[in-house]
Amino acid sequence: MKPKLASHGGPRVRETPLVPEEHLQARFGEEEKRALAEVIDSGHLCRVFGQRARQFERQAAEYFGVAHAVAVTSGTAAIHCALAAIGVGHGDEVITSPITDMGSVIPILALNAIPVFADVDPKTFNMTAEAVEKSITDRTKAIIPVHLAGQSCVMEPIISLAKERGLHVVEDCAQSYLSTCDGRQVGTIGDAGCFSLNDFKHITCGDGGFLISDDEELISRAALFADKGYPRTGPVRNSLILGMNYRITELQAAVAGVQLRKLASIVQRRRQFANTLNGLLSRIEGVQVPHIADGIEHSYWFYAFTVDSGRLGATAAAIAKEVTAEGVPVTFPYLGMPVYLFDSIKRTLVCGSEVSFHRGLCPNAEMVLEEMMVLPCNECMSERDARDIADAIGKVCGYHLSDGIQP
Predict the structure, then answer these.
(1) Where in the sequence of the chain do the CATH 3.90.1150.10 domains occur?
(2) How far, in Å, CA of 82 to CA of 76, rounded?
(3) CA 152, CA 45: separation in Å to the nearest integer?
(4) Which of 93, 119, 220, 300 could make a disulfide contact with 274, Cβ separation 3.0–4.6 Å?
């Protein structure tokens, strides 16, 4: 019998919020409060005079098994510092993904360099080495692989290509804490790894970020760039390079340090929830669960899936709206368009002439964004939550599959 959808007046699958407020409140506890109180009691909220930011940098470097880390104000700032440290400048080209946040692109433009967009694998939604190779010119300086939604790019061919062409690799790990590729953690594979600590990531201090690297010279230049070029040594203040003011505060660093200790548990619980959801959704005709490339371990910042619109006889937008009406919020579209179609980028002047970014530049990315839907993924979500999600999606897909009649 054809199920009656909630959007048509039928009963909802889920009546209570999928991610209630208490899930969000559970991210912080007494440890964070104590850490903040200790900073307040110290009288030093600025990293120049305090110790928490330095402690967090040592903690982050040790956690990821690298030599150095620099804490900054955002993931965007981390990428900006890394690109500046490797010498990206006027007229250089930097290759990155068309499915990403502006935070991956702003640093390129801020250095008066040119963003070049390499198309994605339509199954994983991540940029590929083949697309990167096609995008390389004699002006290419660096590659920024964006590890989307918790899944690492396939890195070995990208790294091999970069070494062959003498290019730097700066990993954008904002969405993919503890994702691994062939046993290596993202952020430790390229020249530098850049992470976000904003309010929506696996761990957070409200806003913040950091970069990691084994390259002492890169880290030294990044640290200078993050602090207006000041080395903070010696009696004379002298700015050695033109930099920004990207200093993280002691308050942010204190919270970040506590959050980092929770990261492994957070990712483990997200993986457990997502694996349960994968098993349930894979049984539903017309639904494609996340495709994970060989050698990759996903860490699920969010849960991205697609539906077969042709098989269901309904658009992704319609499916998302109907599932949401069942009490399971689905985000569609994720971006709406590749970043190169954003107004701010289309109007940007680079090197004195207008750069053309147009529809059709990355056809796979454009196709993916017409199909990709996003479900929340939270470490506090339960098996019951996964079953409610699957029931809502199954109900909607079953409606469209039952006889092809459209609402």
Answers:
(1) 263-403
(2) 10
(3) 35
(4) 300
| Torsion over CA: 278, 281, 283, 288 (sign) | negative
Query: Could you give the CA distance from residue 263 to residue 40 in angstroms, rounded to a whole number?
Result: 25
Residues in the chain: 407
Which positions ≥6 away from 73 have C-beta within 8 Å?
A: 207, 208, 209, 246, 247, 248
Domain with CATH 3.40.640.10 in the chain: 30-260
CATH architecture assigned to 263-403: Alpha-Beta Complex (3.90)
Reported as a single tens digit per residue, the pLDDT across 246-272 is 999 999 999 999 999 999 999 999 999
**Could you tell me if 287 and 393 are in contact, meaning their C-beta atoms sit under 8 angstroms apart?**
yes
> CA 317, CA 212: separation in Å to the nearest integer?
39
Mean pLDDT by 10 residues, the chain (407 residues): 88 92 85 98 96 98 98 98 97 96 96 96 97 96 98 98 98 98 98 96 97 98 97 87 97 98 98 97 96 97 94 95 97 94 79 73 96 93 97 96 58
Amino acid residing at 148: L
CATH 3.40.640.10, applies to 30-260: yes
Rg (CA), the chain: 22
Predicted model pTM = 0.95
Give the integer Cα–Cα distance in Å for 67 and 335: 36
Alpha-carbon span 329 to 214, nearest angstrom = 41
Q: CA–CA separation, 254 vs 352, rounded Å? A: 43
